[in-house]
Amino acid sequence: MKYIKKGAQPPALIAIHKDKTKTYKDVSDNLSVTPNITVKTDTLKALIRDQGSICCYCMQKISIDNLTSASPLYPTIEHYIAQSTDESKSNNLDTDYKNMLVTCHGNDKKDSENKHCDSSRGSKKFEFLNPLDISCERVLGYAQDGGVFCLDSSNKVEIDNDIRVLNLNFQTLKDNRKSIINGVKKAIKFRRNQLKSKWNKEEFKQNELAKCKVLSDGIFEPFIQVKIYALKKF
């Protein structure tokens, strides 16, 4: 999971949030009623920009390019505090950009029995994990087999529960993370063999970590935090 820093939100969404009579149903692209107003798509694009085109939970690539909303790969606007909760209803959080994230399809349109991310979570309340809090990068580790595990012993029960709620150890996600970890190993081995006596472990690590922090055309590498973790453990 990678920390998300919020950017500017669409002006039309701001207007909807200020109007306390409006709900998330008004965050729509009803072009037949309001031509040229695409609040939902604009909001989705802003969220994808904030997240560097990766899912807020599993970090796989997300995009709406060349996709329709009917596509099984189309991402979803997610509410960190679920819309169905009293907290959301009392504070209009369903239209609050600060409460919005964008998540992958979660495998829901491919295999209904093996969902992950928002599709697995539903409206369950998180006990600890929050991609809008930088602690999410500190408390999760990634095993050699691609599994996600808790690094914070003081909050282990809560974090383990959130991992289960999101089904982050779904096998396909594990396989993808394992591939990233193996890629880091191969890159290290290749560079070490190439440089031989000039090989500098710490210099290599710092150079690679610096690349991870810089967005390329506004896009993060999928599973970027896995790569960062693997480099730091090296």
Explain this structure to me?
- By secondary structure, the protein is mostly helical.
- The chain has one domain.
- The protein is 39% helix and 6% strand.
- A two-stranded antiparallel sheet has the order 1-2.
- Strand 3 and strand 4 form a beta hairpin.
- The longest helix is centred in the C-terminal third of the chain and has 25 residues.
- The protein is globular and about 70 Å long.
- The relative contact order is 0.13.
Give the structure's gist in a few sentences.
The protein is mainly alpha-helical and 234 residues long.
How would you describe this structure in keywords?
single chain, 234 residues, mainly alpha, two-stranded antiparallel sheet, 9 helices, 4 strands, globular
Figure out the total of helices: 9
Low-confidence stretches: none
Portion of residues within helices: 25-40%
Q: In what range is the share of β-strand residues?
A: 5-15%
In total, the number of domains comes to 1
Largest sheet: 2 strands, antiparallel
The computed structural class is mainly alpha
**Spatial shape:** globular
- Give me the oligomer status: single chain
Number of distinct beta strands = 4
Strand order of the largest sheet: 1-2
Q: Nearest-angstrom radius of gyration?
A: 19 Å
Distance between the termini: 19 Å
Layout of SSEs?
Blueprint lengths: L10 H8 L20 H12 L25 E4 L6 H6 L8 E4 L14 H4 L13 H4 L1 E3 L5 E3 L5 H11 L4 H25 L5 H12 L11 H10 L1
Antiparallel strand pairs: 1-2, 3-4
